[in-house]
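Good morning N.,

You mentioned wanting to compare the apo and holo forms, so I went ahead and generated the holo version with guanosine-5'-triphosphate. This is what I fed in:
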Amino acid sequence: MATQQEQAYSSLENAAMPLPQSLKDAPKTEKEPAVILCIGMAGSGKSTFMQRLTASIHSAKKTPYVVNLDPAVGKLPFGCNIDIQDVVNYKQVMKQYGLGPNGGIITSLNLFTTKFDQVLDLIGKRSKELDYVVFDTPGQIEIFTWSASGQIITDTLATLHPTVLAYIIDTPRSSSPATFISNMMYALSILYKTKLPMILVFNKCDVVDASFAREWMTDFESFQEAVRGDEESGYMGSLVGSMGLVLEEFYNALKVVSVSAVTGAGMDDFFTAVDEAVSEYKTDYRPAMEKKIFDKKEALKKSREENLSKLMKDMEVGGGAGSKKDTSTDDFYDDDGADDDDEFNVSLEDRSTNSAGEEASFKRFLEKAAK
Ligand SMILES: Nc1nc2c(ncn2[C@@H]2O[C@H](COP(=O)(O)OP(=O)(O)OP(=O)(O)O)[C@@H](O)[C@H]2O)c(=O)[nH]1
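and this is what came out, ligand included:
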């Protein structure tokens, strides 16, 4: 039976639309693992949630593939297939580039992202047997709002697999309207930057129930009332109040679940939300992405043809030696898709089959980077 991906391809082909080469080359798997990217502020409970998530996947007799993108997490509380810490030592990055902890983490991720294609290859090799690919990320969520590495990671993953963002929120720390709104603004920026389906995961519900947040998201008056009664908001009150109004439409685009990573409460709801988000990806995101890639390729082709005909004209005018030569675009453009830049040719290894020595691996990485 044809997979969703194959059906999507054939519907494009049936529409007599040439298929973009990059999509033709994408692995067509029987089973498509869903990618879950866990994003959230420092201390929101991402790593604890990852631990709960992988445990729940295993107990449902499904197969996860786990990737850690947080270079500063130290000892991981969950089993992991690919760990950025095996490749980049963020303390040495800080030293080498004269950076503080935040800069060190972001730069480490940027360095790692230069070889993200290897991560995709490792996932691709096992994708037939996988149900979920889950990513832990650093608490520096600006990575996903303005950094290039965040965009490369989300874009490349979403090109190949149904990808869902799980935005983890520290519920007890979001119980004031001002902190709640600032958290929502971050989530909004990430949503609009990536355009991927997003699940708001109100974590730590064993400490504070998230019903207040659901109410604020569905009943504007109740949020306004909370703002009026909140001394912390102070002079910010009117700004926070108007933000609440602006965000109403954004709330409609989200799935909301409350969980406790510690007790495991709410995980069933989370997986239901993931299923819904995957369907949303397939009906909304993937067709839009395929059209975007197609349009980009067409624009590139057009500009190449224009440049070529300009060049041919110039050669004719100048009577250049090659003016009569049959020249195709292939002679001017290296279009074999191969990566000619071998500067950072670092080989990532799947920890489940081989765990590289961190020091040696990082030394290798820096040596290649310095070339
Ligand atoms: N009560 C309770 N505590 C939690 C829950 N989830 C996480 N925590 C606690 O919150 C703290 C932060 O959790 P982490 O999982 O390290 O959070 P993180 O988002 O990965 O933090 P960074 O690595 O700094 O970005 C720890 O003390 C956890 O034990 C939860 O569901 N309930």
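Confidence is low (pLDDT under 50) at residues 1-29, 321-345.

Happy to go through it together on a call whenever suits you.

Best,
F.
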